User: Which sequence fits this backbone?
């Protein structure tokens, strides 16, 4: 914010805010002032709330006033959370910044303002004139406030401020950046070809944009990040200067027809490396190479950042975590133990807690809905209809508040597939991918939806892309399963067998696969087909005929899927020896 109304010095809730210097201090138990540092944008929001003290300030007003195209990403929630962590630390009462559901935010603490002016004779300090005080009470009250003892208190305050000002500004400030705050430094071009510089800069630029897509992230804009281009990277100094927790740096080196990418995620507070990776890709088509590099990095970094933030929050044991902190803990818990009923229950518990703390939270709603859908799809639900209905309601509420929330869009697309509303599933998942082309979850599920619409040839590229985006995914076996099924429906028995066996090798606990028995039968490897079918029936004795299998296979009403299933899956199972009834 370039301008502000009111006075230069503001007192509220035990804090002193120097508007002209952008300095925030907390009054300690001895009456002294201790510097408290938050990011410049958080202070801009604080200034706006102070100027509008007592009024509700909407999200749009905050965005228009504080982020006129300077920082990318949805940062209002993140910065409000950062302010609350600072202002409410150690407090037992409600938050100084109130959330007014559906409307915005309001500064709840009483405010006293001091205007700059000449000091009384004999008082040295920072130009605060207590006789010009303008408090939140009426003018008649203000004119009486500084008579007698009140005047003495004002002068004492001015002296105190003067005494500590130099000390405040000489001390390093203890910055408490938002959990998911970061800067992507310009990647280094390790070639001797200056013409490759544009390619390396494009990788940096696109990665910045892609990381900004996730709700709740605070990503420093490209223009600011590129001021560090060609300079030695001091992660601690950069973190303090920009108010971020993480620094992302990397390099690109051409190796013939290949390009090698090195990247690392650094904790700006400790300068410790949180994560690093190196990989190569084909560079003969630079546009395609750039897309693959940024897509893979954005996907992996999003996961690593969520997990790192979750570990930090748990390690620091924040006494009064806000809703976003609790949500991040739930997300990190889910990522660390994806695939188990216990993990889903624990993540849902944390999401529910986040929603209680912030009834307007879009991310908590989308998170709860995702866990309910997981319960239904994995057979862990004790009340399928109730869980589906609640997931539906939560997703509608989330999208009413934020139509561009990619997680909500993705989850409603998956829910529509389970409801056999496949065209709607396709539309929602395509919208989710438009919002974030590197969301491997949405990409894989769109491939599955297209397959179940009877279009496996259209679904294959999406599932293949989800593997390229996350080639080291611990649950890559799931993607191999769906690739095998797509190939089987297309009559590609050899490719289907290869992928289904890869899936089993990656996760032997998944047991025998009925589709593998069908693929082996379709190919004519009858001994292997019969053995695989017999092994599968040990685990599924009730599905001992084609009629019973048809009742359990998804979406029997889709005519295109029915035709392909009859020609491939059922034909292969007949050859493997499965009876009709």
Assistant:
């Amino acid at each position: 914010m370039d301008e502000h109304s009111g006075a230069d010095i503001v007192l509220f809730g035990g804090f002193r805010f120097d508007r002209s210097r952008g300095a925030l201090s907390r009054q300690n138990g001895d009456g002294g002032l201790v510097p408290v540092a938050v990011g410049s944008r958080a202070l801009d929001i604080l200034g706006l709330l102070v100027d509008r003290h007592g009024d509700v300030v909407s999200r749009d007003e905050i965005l228009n006033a504080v982020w006129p195209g300077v920082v990318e990403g949805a940062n209002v929630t993140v910065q409000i959370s950062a302010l609350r962590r600072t202002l409410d630390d150690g407090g037992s009462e409600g938050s100084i910044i109130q959330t007014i559901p559906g409307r915005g935010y309001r500064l709840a603490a009483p405010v006293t303002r001091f205007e700059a002016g000449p000091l009384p004779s004999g008082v040295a300090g920072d130009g605060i004139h207590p006789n010009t005080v303008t408090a939140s009470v009426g003018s008649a009250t203000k004119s009486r406030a500084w008579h007698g003892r009140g005047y003495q208190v004002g002068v004492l305050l001015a002296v105190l401020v003067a005494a500590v000002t130099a000390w405040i500004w000489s001390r390093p400030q203890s910055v408490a950046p938002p959990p998911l705050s970061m800067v992507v430094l310009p990647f280094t071009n390790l070639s001797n070809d200056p013409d490759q510089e544009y390619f390396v800069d494009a990788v940096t630029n696109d990665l910045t944009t892609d990381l900004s897509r996730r709700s709740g992230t605070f990503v420093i804009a490209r223009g600011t990040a590129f001021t560090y281009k060609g300079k030695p990277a001091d992660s601690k100094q950069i973190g303090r200067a920009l108010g971020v927790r993480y620094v992302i740096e990397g390099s690109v080196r051409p190796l013939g027809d290949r390009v090698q990418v090195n990247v690392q995620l650094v904790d700006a507070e400790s300068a410790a490396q949180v994560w690093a990776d190196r990989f190569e890709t084909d560079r003969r088509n630079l546009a395609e190479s750039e897309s693959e590099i940024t897509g893979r990095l954005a996907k992996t970094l999003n996961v690593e950042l969520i997990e790192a933030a979750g570990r930090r929050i748990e390690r620091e044991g924040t006494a009064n975590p806000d809703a976003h902190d609790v949500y991040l803990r739930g997300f990190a818990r889910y990522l660390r133990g994806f695939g188990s009923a216990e993990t889903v229950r624990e993540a849902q518990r944390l999401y529910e807690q986040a929603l209680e703390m912030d009834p307007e939270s879009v991310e908590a709603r989308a998170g709860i809905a995702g866990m309910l859908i997981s319960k239904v799809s994995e057979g862990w639900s004790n009340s399928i209809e109730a869980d589906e209905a609640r997931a539906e309601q939560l997703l509608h509420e989330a999208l009413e508040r934020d139509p561009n929330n990619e997680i909500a869009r993705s989850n409603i697309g998956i829910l529509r597939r389970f409801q056999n509303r496949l065209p709607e599933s396709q539309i929602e998942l395509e919208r989710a991918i438009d919002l974030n082309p590197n969301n491997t979850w949405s990409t894989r599920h769109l491939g599955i939806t297209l397959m179940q619409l009877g279009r496996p040839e259209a679904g294959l590229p999406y599932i293949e892309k989800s593997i390229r985006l996350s080639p080291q995914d611990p649950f890559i076996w799931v993607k191999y399963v769906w690739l095998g099924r797509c190939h089987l429906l297309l009559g590609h028995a050899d490719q289907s067998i290869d992928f289904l066996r890869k899936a089993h090798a990656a996760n032997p606990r998944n047991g025998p696969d009925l589709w593998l028995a069908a693929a082996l039968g379709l190919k004519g490897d009858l001994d292997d087909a019969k053995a695989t079918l017999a092994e599968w029936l040990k685990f599924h004795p009730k599905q001992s005929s084609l009629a019973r299998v048809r009742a359990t296979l998804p979406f029997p009403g889709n005519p295109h899927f029915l035709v392909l299933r009859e020609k491939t899956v059922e034909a292969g199972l007949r050859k493997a020896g499965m009876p009709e009834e």
